[in-house]
Amino acid sequence: MNNQIMNNQGLQNKQQMLKDIGIVSFAVVDLALYLDTHPTDRAAMEYFNHYNRIKTQMEREFSRNYFPLTMNHAESNREWRWGAAPLPWEGVCD
């Protein structure tokens, strides 16, 4: 495969991962809002815990592969990577 095809596939994978993280993040926030008014709903709490773990795992994976999304994922044994993310005005944050 040539480099352009591989770069396009990598970009698509990164964009898909960001989209998936956004979807799960929405569910976590929505569940948190529900739990604010229904704090004794055990099923909702189980859903919240489940999706929050998935979100954390997805963010860690993304941070390992690309750049940290939050300061919580900026840790690295090799180098400081917090500043590695592209800035919005660089045209990559669609």
Strand content: under 5%
* Uncertain residue segments: none
Portion of residues within helices: 55-70%
The residue-averaged pLDDT reads: 84
Classify the secondary structure makeup into a structural class.
mainly alpha
* Largest pleated sheet: none
**Total of DSSP H or I helical runs spanning 4+ residues:** 2
Q: What is the string of SSEs from the N terminus onward?
A: HH
Evaluate the radius of gyration. 16 Å
Shape: elongated
Distance between the termini: 27 Å
DSSP, total strands: 0
Describe this structure in words.
This protein has about 90 residues and is an all-alpha fold. The chain has a domain at about 10-60. It contains 2 helices and no strands. Helix 1 (about 5-35) runs antiparallel to helix 2. The longest helix is centred in the first third of the chain and has 35 residues, at about 5-35. It is elongated and about 45 Å long. The protein starts with a helix and ends in a 29-residue tail after the last helix. The model has no long low-confidence stretch (mean pLDDT about 85).
Keywords summarizing the entry:
94 residues
Could you outline the blueprint of secondary structure elements for this entry?
Blueprint: H1 3-37, H2 42-65
Summed up:
Helices cover 63% and strands 0% of the residues. It is an all-alpha fold.
